[in-house]
Amino acid sequence: QTSQPEIPTMNYQRAQLTQPQIDYDDISYYTELKLLGKGAYGTASLVKHKQSSEQFVLKRVSLSGTTPDEIAEILKEAQNLKKLSHPNIIKYHAQFKDSKFFYLLMEYANYGDLENLVEKRMKNRITRDLVIDLTTQIAAGLAYCHANNVIHRDLKSANIFLNEENGKLTAKIGDFGCSKIIGCSQMGAQTICGTPVFMAPEMFLQKKLIYKYECDMWSMGIIFYHLCTGRLPFFANTMDQLVFKLERGSYVALTDGKFQQIFEQMIRKQPNQRITAEYLYQLMRQMK
């Protein structure tokens, strides 16, 4: 039984398939509608359940060309998703395999991801109200992860998925392949994982690599800046350039003074000085 965080103040039930009496654990039950993308371990497709007509994202991983460590990474994503149930986190539905592939069945978000949204609205900046709304939602999902001892470790705009319903956008954190569950007695994680321009400095600048939830808050800050400006604060083409920019700590400040204050609190170099996801959630709620 996972613990619930103090915020958001709603009750969340474990994600259930719409029609539990129907079988979902065989690839023959699905029709592929379109390929959504290819990753390091396989493909992700939009599929439709033939009997129930429900749409899902189906991750497919080849067993023949995949190492045991890579399979373990996929299983870790499944286990971490299974542990979490929150409206701002992509829902896990099922996992199964056949002789050739391992499959992970997940919720489909119909409006793409945050990176695409920012790119689509480059000429017309995302409104202040929408920045506040989406940041509030992402903070709520992240606070829930942290309350349940899960560090995401690869938070970035492309891993925040969006669902649109009746003109309302709902942000959902996804792609938990890099995530790690830590216990209260553990010092923290000690492996390099993530996308460099969104990664906290301690994940690749420290000689002795130990980090905890605070690394996600740095990434949250980069996402927030990206939402506000359409740019990344510390963009670089090489790791050497990125390290140089991070060590200097120079970037173009946000024009909104309140937003700049919040951003600064997320990207403090000392991890233990960064605000928590819970605190960010409360800050954004007060701005609504």
TrEMBL record:
Q: Keywords in alphabetical order, please.
A: ATP-binding, Kinase, Nucleotide-binding, Serine/threonine-protein kinase, Transferase
Q: Which family does it belong to?
A: Belongs to the protein kinase superfamily. NEK Ser/Thr protein kinase family. NIMA subfamily.
Source organism per entry reads: Trepomonas sp. PC1
- Record InterPro entries: Kinase-like_dom_sf, NEK_Ser/Thr_kinase_NIMA, Prot_kinase_dom, Protein_kinase_ATP_BS, Ser/Thr_kinase_AS
Question: What is the protein name for this chain?
Answer: non-specific serine/threonine protein kinase
Q: A GO molecular-function term, please?
A: ATP binding
Gene3D superfamilies in UniProt: Phosphorylase Kinase, domain 1 (3.30.200.20), Transferase(Phosphotransferase) domain 1 (1.10.510.10)
Report the SUPFAM superfamilies cross-referenced here.
Answer: Protein kinase-like (PK-like)
Q: List, alphabetically, the Pfam families matched.
A: Pkinase
Q: Can you tell me which residues bind ATP?
A: K59
For this protein, the Enzyme Commission number is: 2.7.11.1
Q: Where do the Protein kinase domain residues begin and end?
A: 30-288
Catalytic EC class = transferase
Task: Give the reactions, separated by semicolons, that this protein catalyses.
Answer: L-seryl-[protein] + ATP = O-phospho-L-seryl-[protein] + ADP + H(+); L-threonyl-[protein] + ATP = O-phospho-L-threonyl-[protein] + ADP + H(+)
